[in-house]
Each structure stands twice: as C-alpha cells, then as structure tokens.
C-alpha cells in the first residue's frame, strides 16, 4: 500500500532546492481521463499554472505524454518554457524551442499493417471502440465501447496480437493502458526519454550535476517506465518524489500517491503561490 504524499515535506524540499526538474504525464495526471480523448485539453487555469511553474530559472518542466506532436503543439504552444515529449518519447520539443526532434530513429514500421488488421477486426466487432494510429505506435481504445452491441474482449485481442507478431514481439511491446491496448517498439518508452532528459540536464548546466529536486508524476502503466528510470538513475533520495495518481493499492514503482488530477494541480499551486488556486473545473 502506497503512502499518501507528504506535501508539506515536498514543499519544504522545493523551497530549499536550487535546481528543479519536473516530469509529468498528461492524461490522468494533469487532466482527468474523459470518454472522448480529444476533449482532454488544458483549461486556461492549467495553462496559467504551467506557465508559472516553468518560469523560474531554477525550474525545468516537462510533459511526457503518449499523445502525438500535433496535439501537444496545438494545446501547449502558448507555454514555450515547458518541454514536450510526444508518443512516449518518440518526439521531443525542448524548453524554449519550437522545433520537434524525432528521437525514434529508423524504427521498423512493417508490423503496423498486421496490427491494423487485427485492431480493425476487433473494432468492427466492438461498436464504440476506435483505433488511434500515431507515427510509431497504434492504439485500440475501447473506453466508449457499447457492451450491449458487441462483446469487449481486450484479452483475446492481446492474445491475437502476440500470436500474429511472433518473433517480431521481441522488438515490440503490447501494453494494456486505461481502457486501451497499444503496440509500440520497445526502443520507444517514457523510461528511455527520461534517461535522456536526466542525462541532458546533468550535462548542460554550468556545473554538471543531478537536479536537487525531482518530481515525477503519472497515473498509467506507461508511467511505470518513468518511475523505474528515475530510481535506476540513483538520484538524491531525500529530494526525489515519484508519485502515482490513483488508488494507493495499485502495483507501482512510485513511492507515494495522490488521489486524482485535482490533487496534482493543487500541489503545483502550493509550490508557486503566485498561481492562484483553480476556481474552475480542470
């Protein structure tokens, strides 16, 4: 059972630190999960909070999301001071930059046709489900599926995927997300991009060192790669906070939990009090 985040201690550590790094998921972390993923956009309040928390020179703030670059660019271009990582690290826009960097390299996409055929079959059999095809990954969403019109069988879909991919599965990962199945290359993950961000952070400061305050927050299975990468980097334990959003009983590599995105937003307002507490829904 996870312990509830000691926010007073975190705020105290934040105040005493000189170099701060924030690594945050988007969906389910900074914004609630909604039935229509396209509706999970930042409110003016959230944009204001992100601007405030990313403005101090001591702070480096990243959103590390499974969303594609177009979505992140559309909704966060007004906050150039934050870093953006799209498709679990396949694409990166660094803080203060406008260009996107493709970090996926020459990823083999030959598998995508086979995966699409399977997802299309299950979509046809599951009214309300949809396929999201990104640059390097494909996701089948069944959150809005209508069980009265067709069986929802993600376990069978996963079995069919793994069977069809065969030897290719050594280079691919089939992941269960929140009401979705995603197939992506194993070389692309939030853990890989977090390792890169940490390395770049240490090497691009006048006196290379780890950040002395590190806050990592996520809610989904894909965020476990972030938590593990941070633990493996062996940062200063007293000022490193890995936080899972959701039930304290779930299995996670995080050390603490917060209940929901509203708690996450409230925490950020405590770190930078000049940001007023939100008076609107997230």
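Sequence proposed for the structure above (282 residues):
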């Amino acid at each position: 059972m996870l312990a509830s985040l000691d926010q007073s201690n975190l705020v105290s550590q934040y105040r005493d630190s000189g170099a701060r790094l924030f690594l945050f998921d988007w969906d389910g972390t900074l914004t609630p999960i909604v039935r229509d993923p396209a509706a999970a956009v930042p409110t003016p309040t959230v944009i204001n909070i992100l601007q405030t928390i990313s403005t101090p020179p001591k702070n480096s703030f990243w959103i590390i999301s499974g969303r594609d670059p177009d979505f992140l660019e559309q909704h966060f271009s007004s906050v150039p001071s934050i870093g953006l990582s799209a498709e679990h690290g396949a694409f990166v826009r660094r803080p203060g930059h406008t260009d996107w960097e493709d970090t996926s390299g020459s990823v083999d996409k030959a598998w995508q046709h086979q995966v699409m055929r399977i997802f299309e079959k299950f979509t046809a059999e599951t009214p309300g489900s949809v396929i999201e095809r990104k640059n390097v990954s494909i996701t089948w969403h069944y959150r809005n599926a209508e069980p009265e019109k067709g069986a929802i069988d993600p376990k069978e879909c996963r079995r069919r995927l793994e069977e069809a991919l065969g030897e290719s599965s050594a280079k691919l990962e089939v992941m269960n997300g929140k009401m979705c199945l995603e197939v992506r290359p194993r070389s692309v993950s939030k853990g890989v991009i977090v390792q890169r961000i940490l390395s770049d952070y240490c090497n691009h400061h006048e006196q290379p060192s780890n950040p002395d305050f590190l806050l990592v927050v996520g809610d989904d299975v894909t965020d476990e790669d972030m938590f593990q990468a941070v633990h493996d980097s062996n940062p200063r334990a007293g000022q490193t906070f890995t936080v899972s959003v959701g039930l304290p009983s779930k299995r996670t590599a995080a050390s603490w939990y917060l209940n929901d995105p509203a708690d996450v937003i409230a925490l950020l307002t405590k770190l930078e009090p000049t940001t007023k507490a939100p008076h609107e829904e997230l």
